Structures are given as C-alpha cells and as structure tokens.
Amino acid sequence: MNKSLWDDIRYVLAVAETGSLNAAATQLGVTHATVLRRVSIFEQKHGQAVFQKRPTGYRVLPEAEPILAEARNVRDAVLALDRAFLGTDPSLSGPVRIASTDSICTCILPPIVEEISRIHPDLEIVLQSANFRHDFLRLSADIAVRPAIGLEEGMFGEKAGCFEFAAYATDNCRDVWLRLEGPLQHIPVAKWMQESIAPDRSSIGSDSFLVLREFIAAGAGYGILPEYVGDADQRLTRLAAAIPAFRTPIWVATLKELSNNVRFRTVREILRAEIAKTLRPISATV
Questions:
Q1: In degrees rounded to 5, what are phi and psi of residue 114?
Q2: Which pLDDT tens digits describe the chain residue by residue (286 residues)?
Q3: What is the spatial distance between Cα 137 and Cα 73, in angstroms, rounded to a whole number?
Q4: Where is the HTH lysR-type domain positioned along the sequence (predicted)?
Q5: Backbone phi, then psi, for 269, in 5-degree steps?
Q6: 221 and 80 share one domain
C-alpha cells in the first residue's frame, strides 16, 4: 500500500471517530491544519466528500459509510501486520512504552524504571501515566502495569503482587467522605461507598488518587486510597477497620501477540520482580 494513502486513511478515521478536527489532531499529535489538509487531499483524490461540516463538528455522510468501513478494515490489517513484526523483534534496544495509572507511575514505578534504564541503556523507555486503559490492539502502549482483578482476552501477563485499600484522614478533618469519580467510580471499593455512605455525607470528588490524597491532607474529609499511596504520607492517618477489605492484584502484561518480543519480555520480567518487593504477596489475596 502507498504510504501516503495509509496516512490519509489514518487522518480520515481519526476525524470520523472523534467528530472534530481538533480532537483528531490531539489524537494524532499533529496540528488542526494538518488534519484538515490531509482529509481534503483524501476527498479530492477520490472525488467524493466523506464528511459534512456542522457547527457541532464533522459527521460522516451516509453515502460515505462503506468507504469508512473499508478504511477500518485496512487499518485493522495494517495493525495486525505491525503486531506480527513487533512480536518477533529479537532486539534488546529501542522503544518500550509502559502504561499505568497516575498513582502507580508516581508512587511505585520511577525507581524501577530508572534501574531498568541503567541496566539496559539502549532501551528508550517512556512511562505513560493515565487513568484509562490504552488500546493495545492499536499499539498505543507496549506493557501494562495494571491494577485489576483479571486481564481481558488477548492480554498475557503475571501478577506482581497485591495491595489493599484503606481509609485515611487528618486530625480535625471534615466529617464527610471524598468521592471517587471518573474511572475510579467503577472499582469495587467505590461501589461499596455508593451503597454504604449517605449522599449528604459525601463531599468533593476526584478521578485521581493523587488528588484525593491532597484533599485528605488538606482536611477536606475522609478518603479511600491504595495503601501504596496513603501509607507513606506522614500527613495522613490510616483509619483501622474503617472499611471492609478490598484487595487488588497488580498485573504486568502485554498483548499475547507481543509476548515474545525480547525487549518487552525483558522489561516485563524486571518490572514484575521489582514491583513484587513493594506489594503484598499474591498469597495475601486468598
């Protein structure tokens, strides 16, 4: 396939899936003007409009839906080929993107990643911090360090250990609970809060445990944190038996298709061994 055509398809699909030039530009890491130019080139080259511009954004024209369907097929085929090549890469040099939550990236991973970088200086390691799951099928990351009960289909990995959640407070804090918002509201401890704590006893919320830690330290109320976030903070007091036991494993994983990539496997093994030193052993989950 002509590389220029594949690049144009990427831009068209990004606009179709985000609904706007700005969002597509952010996703692709380019400028608004670049997206507009590449979409225009695609439409002109094929002599057919794909989008209708509206005040609210870009909408795919009904007659262009078959074009978008085939474009998605092309993307899936190209990504499958990329994964096949990447999965057999024998090199112990090159990029390695490690994706995890903001709290794990802040509280656990930096010294471990620094050690890996020192041992293997030819690796170009990037730590991707976000409280959402990357699309590994689209190769948006290489290794996941993920707190989860299990892994989804297509992923391969091992548990490094587990952690508990605990309630924390400060002296003379407000007699209210801080809410877990965004992706955090779907974890088991958040569901317990929704069922057990009256709405009038809830206060400020956040989608980040690091932000919640700062609210707790400021006296804004009681808050629930992973113990690796709360225990090391001298400003906070852990409240014994304030909540039921909620234990969660941390996995070090990648796509099954990428599990034989030498540099990914090497980094995964070090991550699992070093993270295990900071967590409760897996037997603690039984």
A1: -60, -40
A2: 555 567 788 888 888 888 888 888 888 888 889 988 888 888 888 888 888 888 888 898 899 898 888 888 888 888 788 788 788 888 899 999 999 999 999 999 999 999 999 999 999 999 999 887 777 777 788 999 999 988 888 899 999 999 999 999 999 999 999 999 999 999 999 999 999 999 889 889 999 999 999 999 999 999 999 999 999 999 999 998 889 999 999 999 999 999 999 999 999 999 999 999 999 887 643 3
A3: 14
A4: 1-61
A5: -65, -40
A6: no
